[in-house]
Amino acid sequence: MNWIHKLYDTYENCKSEVGVARTDSKTPLLPLSHTIVNSNIEIVVDIHGNFRRARNVSKSEAMTIAPCTEDSASRGNGNNPHTLFDKLQYVAGDYTSFFNDKRDKKFFIEYIKLLEAWSNSEYKDEKVIAVLNYLKKERLVADLISEKLLEVDENSHVTNKWFGDKDNKPMKTSDIFVRFIVEIPGDVNCRLWENTDILRKYHNHYLNTKTKYGLCYIQGNNMLTTLKHQSKIRGNGDSAKLISANDENGFTYLGRFSDSNQVVSIAYETSQKAHNALKWLVDIQGQKFGNPKDGQKIIVAWGTKNQTIPQILEDTQGGIFGKEETAIVSTEKEFAQRLNKAIAGYGCDLDTKAEIVIMGLDAATTGRLSIAYYRELYGTDFLNRIKHWHSTCIWQHSYKIIADGFDEKGKAKFKTISFIGAPSPKDIATIALGSPRENSKTQKKHLELKDSLLKATVERLLPCIIDGAKLPYDLVNSVVNRVSNPVSMEKWEWEKALTITCALVKKYKYDKLKEVWEMALDENQKDRSYIFGRLLAIAQQIEEYALYTTGEKRPTNAERLMHQFKLHPYKTWGIITDKLGPYIARLGSKGTGLTELMTQVNSMIPYEEFTSPKKLDDSYILGYYCQRQVFIDEKNIRIQANAIKKLGQAN
Amino acid sequence: MKKENSVEFKVSGRYALFSDPINRIGGEKFSYQVPTYQALKGILESVYWKPTLIWIIDEVRVMNLIKTQSQNIRPVNFSGTSKGTGTPLNTLSIYTYLTNVEYQVKAHFEWNYNRPNLEKDRNENKHYIVAKRMINRGGRRDVFLGTRECQAYVEPCKFGEGEGAYDHYGSLSFGLMFHGFDYPDETGEDKLTARLWSPVMNNGYIKFLRPDECTIKRELSSMKPKVFDENNFSGLEEFEEEGDIIELDS
To answer: How confident is the model over A160-188, as pLDDT tens digits?
Structure first.
């Protein structure tokens, strides 16, 4: 089925969410013929249209659902008022006498015309009439001044001083957005923007004002059509539209057709529902890439009945396990059990008939939004594919930073956690293709990825997750090369790159050769590159240990020559062992264990293989990691044992 | 029509773009998941067509998994030229193509009774045999899948032969989709009409509605049929008994 129909279905299925304010300050699912605005001032009138009071609205409660017309929803500089709540220039009849700018009274006249049309229709509402009666007195600005919400200078012009919440300050006082409350004693439904009765009445009234019927290309019925479709899909500042027709001279649609109306016709209701649903989904669960200013790429996945689904572009920890308590999982088997459990948890909601849609939105220009990726999957199908990714592209990572409550001063605290799972596409892209940037203050380097490259790479990784496609080799190759050059990066970032590389190599080997590489050291592994990798880790350990005994701190030869070692293992190994001599001598008897291990591992490679000029395969990084991890684990155990011993002595 | 004049062929290509009009109107082309009736008819007309006949597409079989790929495109913007050099300006778009497609198509032809001047050309065997031969040769004109840049290749095949990706998939519906245009030379009415329908794919097969069976239609504009006469159609004389026999070598 096509995308717009799926969005329409989603809206229909989620009708209970329409107009319900959310606790997380995200956009609610909007009712038809309404838009979302930020109000600055709230005016209370009684049922006869007498002014009661007014107050400033704080940022947290500023979100207001406002009745609009197709013209006002997409308005620019023209005179296109919303129907009930709007800026001062529209709602205030005395605007011209207090503001010294070019705006004249025609804005007010146009606005009142719309409001009167509603109040005279069969869908009128007494509260709206009360607002109309008040506004017709044309003394709104004067009332705000007497309430001390605005200030006038000596020429009795309103100044730019703002008395309300600083976070909710309008650009200028003339841009103040006003909403209304109509108080009737004993009536709790006084806030007009939350009154579902009024919202519905307005929509019916608005439909009544429309006259143009046509075939809806989505529903196949003769319905009221629209030529204007919504923008602001990716957020409030976004002017790109999914459906638009503005090329009146070129050959975008001209040719067989002589005007845009002939190409397609879409019902007003269909368009509104589909766009509202998409906006809502993008805001609550869309994943955004890139800077909002240059246009973000959005990937949004949803169930058409708004079921909970895993986040597809997060690492396993954040995307699948979500907020559940992070139990320490150290083996692959435990991880598999946990993944199965988590997937089964989602499976309760997503049966075979559940429909999952994954949509990627991107814009090449500011005005038009494009669907760059689109898939429809059944619930179980979707979960199986997600599970496949999160069970094949895995390694033990230790870079994830998560929020860890608040400290005494109320500042957010963070901690680094270790997890087994798949890295997020963003991390993969940054490690693979990022370029080093130096922070001018701290002189520390980190990898940074250009937005355009990030967007493109995420798009390439998406099929690997959703469609089970093979990992692109250039990414694998790129991370292996990067991690083979440890001296180019900060230690923490290199560690991160190392585990991500291992995950990618593991995944690639599985995709291409159906080989399963373990995360733990495999002492019987005969693979040439793997053994060479182990040797490198041992050489590094010997040197690091020797440096540690004398308190020195510098990169080891193994680290510096890693890339050379990958290209010419035999030749470079000679150099490394040569340089290792003094360190072995320095360690003396402490180093015998390590040197013995080195000889033992070395003897596992047949002579011809050992001396061969062939460069190392990507699997060397796995051997390197696993051997190194053994040393790290041993060290941690030693430290723990020492701590316990110390404690024992202290007692 | 005495015998069934049904032809079968396979059409494949690296890319295909059967634009959804909803996105097409703004210039960001986005492909339907399966070919439209009109696109397949156009492919067959590129292979072989005469104004004497109308191709009717009976059925299509989707052979490969439906996969999409988006590409950034730099189309020419015809509304102006750059001030310095006078070259046309460009705009930017993202097109979404289907990738690696293969379809098996079954179709037949019927006479176009709105062209009485070609009555003598209604030789079923001749057209049938030429059509078969043209499918064998890969078509008379070049063939494309939906959009001009998606080059395609036509080969003869046995409809239903081989293994398809959706053989055991069950049914899949695509919502309301464009079916094709009613052109004045085929309907006899001086107007252009768009037809829509809701296709359902069963195990990879989509049985098309005949154009005259489509109920959801939208009249777009008035249009006159193209006239084929001695000025633009050299074959007319061939039908006259006294006409010169056109020798192949002359």
So the answer is: 888 888 888 888 888 899 999 999 888 88
Instruction: Decide if A17 is inside a domain.
Output: no
Q: Which domain holds residue A266?
A: 225-288
- With CB atoms and an 8 Å threshold, state whether A246 touches B26: yes
Into how many domains does chain B fold? 1
pLDDT in tens, A468-494: 888 999 999 999 999 998 888 888 889
B218 in a domain, yes or no?
no
Q: What is the pTM of this model?
A: 0.87
- Indicate which of A217, A304, A353, A453 best probes the interface with B, i.e. most B CBs within 10 Å of its own CB: A217
Q: What is the DSSP string of A542-602?
A: HHHHHHHHTT-----HHHHTHHHHHHSHHHHHHHHHHHHHHHHHHHGGGGHHHHHHHHHHH
Last residue of a domain, one of A244, A261, A288: A288
Q: A432 and A357, same structural domain?
A: yes
ipTM above 0.90, yes or no: no
For residue range B117-176, what is the model confidence (pLDDT) as tens digits? 888 888 888 899 999 999 999 999 999 999 999 999 999 999 999 999 999 988 988 999
Tell me the two tokens of residue B186. 């085929």
Contact A501, A621 (CB under 8 A): yes
Last residue of a domain, one of A464, A489, A513: A513
Name the closest residue on chain B to residue A468, using Cα atoms: B67
Task: Say whether both A304 and A184 belong to one domain.
Answer: no
In angstroms, the separation between the Cα of residue A258 and the nearest Cα of chain B is 9
- The DSSP code sequence of B237-250 is GGGSTTSPP--S--
Q: What pLDDT does B8 receive?
A: 95
